[in-house]
């Protein structure tokens, strides 16, 4: 194992032990809970957007729930990374973005752990958008 990998492992442990943005937002724009189907661990993601609509910018993110070190570290890193991004940018993220944040190769067994927070945030954003679209359609009727 090279030095670089050690450094990333330490970062993962640090985020696991001292998670950033852990908790719940008071009145989030949207909130979503999802689980890793492999183990049943659940993560909740709260997101505050600066405005409604497609160009909405993520102002704040909080997460809570349980999981292994990889899932918790990924959630912690993602919660910081997402601030300032648009909802479109969140929805464009894929598993490589999470692997890059973590800085280590993820074994196929742990991929679902690594992408759990990203998936929950994306599902929450899609549901939120769907509701906005529904509201628009209802108002226009
Ligand atoms: Fe449950 Fe990793 S083992 S999230």
In words, what does this structure look like?
The chain contains five helices and three strands, in the order αβββαααα. A three-stranded antiparallel β-sheet has the order 1-2-3, covered by helices on one side. The longest helix is centred in the C-terminal third of the chain and has 30 residues. The radius of gyration is 16 Å and the shape is globular. The N and C termini lie far apart (62 Å). The structure holds FE2/S2 (inorganic) cluster. FE2/S2 (inorganic) cluster binds next to α2 and α5.
Order of helices and strands: HEEEHHHH
Structural category is: alpha+beta
Give the uncertain stretches in residue-range form.
none
The average pLDDT value, as a whole number, equals 91
The helical percent reads: 40-55%
Which molecules are bound besides the chains?
A: FE2/S2 (inorganic) cluster
Helix-strand layout with pairing:
Layout: H1 3-17, E1 30-35, E2 42-49, E3 58-65, H2 69-81, H3 87-92, H4 95-102, H5 111-140
Antiparallel strand pairs: 1-2, 2-3
The protein binds FE2/S2 (inorganic) cluster (FES).
FE2/S2 (inorganic) cluster is lined by residues 36, 39, 41, 67-68, 70-71, 113, 116.
Keywords:
3-stranded antiparallel β-sheet, 5 helices, 141 residues, alpha+beta, globular, binds FE2/S2 (inorganic) cluster, 3 strands, 51% helix
């Amino acid at each position: 194992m090279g030095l670089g990998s050690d450094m990333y492992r330490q970062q993962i442990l640090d985020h696991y032990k001292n998670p950033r943005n852990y908790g719940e937002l008071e009145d989030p724009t949207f909130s979503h809970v999802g689980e890793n189907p492999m183990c049943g661990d659940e993560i909740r993601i709260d997101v505050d957007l600066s405005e409604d609509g497609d160009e909405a910018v993520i102002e704040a993110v909080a997460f809570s729930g349980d999981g292994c070190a990889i899932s918790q570290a990924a959630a912690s890193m993602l919660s910081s990374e997402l601030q300032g991004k648009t909802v479109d940018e969140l929805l464009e993220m894929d598993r490589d973005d999470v692997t890059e944040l973590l800085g280590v190769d993820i074994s196929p067994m742990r991929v679902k752990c690594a992408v759990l927070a990203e998936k929950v945030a994306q599902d929450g954003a899609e549901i939120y958008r769907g509701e906005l679209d529904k509201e628009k359609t209802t108002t226009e009727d």
